[in-house]
Write a structure and sequence with these properties.
6-stranded parallel β-sheet; 6-stranded mixed β-sheet
Length: 387
């Protein structure tokens, strides 16, 4: 066999080996690609439910939360909501929001930040809330002390006139001059109700009572409140009452050796020697109930007015020298207010010009109360802006 023939045979053998290897490789690929026997698919793991977003709640206060009075009391209510609902809510507050253009800016900002429940806590926010409510229909608006509602805007109030009447009972029993002084904020029905109720409470203990009023035309203005309180003391008042938001009136009474009341919150610490008691409102229960209603979808636009009956109004921290019989009278009146057997505003009742405003045995209903624009008999002067 020639060399050429040998090389040809070797070449053929090599090519045959390569072809055989290729055929074996193809056979393995086909075998690997064969489908596996059918079996039941394993169930997919359930996706975790998304965590519910907390309800965002905004509060706008007309004064600072450290005022010791009105805004402080509302902020205690906000904190009660946080304690009640924990991480199911997220609250925000803005303090010292003036009534007017600033109120619109702040309330609008609270809405755009995603707050779905917003509390505006002073009368002067009313028209702003009425303007914003239709612009933010998914927000539940709550306006304190006003009288205008909308499909997504309610009003709420506390019967502070009941607390004023209770304070009046104490003042009537404790005065030595028969002259009481009141520092008023702004002459709206809410404040006039309180001045009149304070006077009527005092007259229930002492019919010779007369009440002097000085207006400061602001809710929170400590220097003006101090000046007004001083003027009342100089005018013969030995016991002071207020419908303003700071502790300035009580502090002034302490400095001048007179007596006074705390208002909206317990103000004992601001004038412990002067302090006769604090006429307070407690908004926590209302704020918690409203939050629940928004959460469970039962919220609806309405007018709410809570008082002694709902445990939202009281007089607390009575001075040690308040007589036992006066304390007993307070308990009697509170019981009557709670069970409906006693009415503060019941005729016959005259204004301070001798005109009958409630006939004998007639009880002033809520519509009547919301329209009070006069002083009762015993209050000196004229209502600012009145006829």
């Amino acid at each position: 066999m020639t060399d050429l023939q040998k090389r040809s045979l070797i070449k053929v053998a090599a090519l045959s080996a390569v072809a055989a290897a290729a055929l074996v490789g193809c056979g393995k690929k086909e075998e690997a690609a064969a489908p596996a026997p059918a079996s039941a698919p394993e169930p997919a793991a359930a996706a975790p439910a998304p965590a519910a977003e907390p309800l965002k709640i905004g509060f706008a206060y007309v004064g600072p939360v450290g005022d010791g009075g009105y805004s402080f009391a509302h902020d205690q209510g906000r904190k009660a909501v946080e304690k009640e609902f924990g991480d199911k809510v997220k609250t925000t507050f803005v303090e010292s929001v003036p009534e007017g253009a600033d109120a619109e800016r702040v309330l609008r900002d609270l809405a755009t930040q995603g707050n779905k429940l917003i509390f505006g806590t002073t009368f002067g926010y009313m028209d702003v809330i009425q303007k914003l409510a239709p612009e933010f229909p998914d927000v539940k608006w709550m306006h304190a002390t006003g009288y205008k509602t909308a499909p997504n805007a309610s009003t709420y109030d506390f019967r502070t006139y009941e607390a004023a009447y209770l304070a009046g009972i104490v003042a009537g029993a404790m005065t030595k001059t028969n002259t009481l002084g009141v520092v008023g904020s702004v002459p709206i029905p809410e404040v006039l109700r309180n001045i009149n109720s304070f006077t009527m409470g005092a007259q229930s203990m002492n019919p010779n009572i007369k009440t002097k009023v000085v207006w400061v035309n602001e809710w929170f203005a400590p220097p003006k409140e101090t000046e007004a309180a001083t003027s009342l003391i100089n005018g013969g008042a030995d016991i002071l009452f207020q419908n303003t938001d700071s502790a300035a009136v009580l502090k002034t009474a302490e400095e001048k050796g007179k007596r006074a009341f705390g208002w909206d919150s317990d103000m004992t610490a601001y004038g412990p020697k002067a302090h006769l008691g604090s006429a307070i409102f407690k908004p926590a229960g209302f704020y918690i109930q409203t939050t629940k209603e928004v959460m469970d979808g039962s919220w609806k636009s309405q007018v709410s007015w809570w008082g002694v009956k709902e445990d939202a109004i009281d007089i607390v921290s009575l001075a040690e020298d308040v007589p036992a019989e006066t304390k007993a009278k307070l308990d009697e009146v509170k019981k009557g207010l709670k069970d409906g057997t006693f009415s503060i505003w019941k005729g016959p009742l005259q204004n301070n010009e001798g005109k009958e405003v409630l006939a004998a045995d007639k009880v002033g209903d809520d519509d009547f109360m919301r329209a009070v624009n006069f002083y009762v008999k015993g209050v000196e002067g004229k209502v600012p802006g009145g006829k």
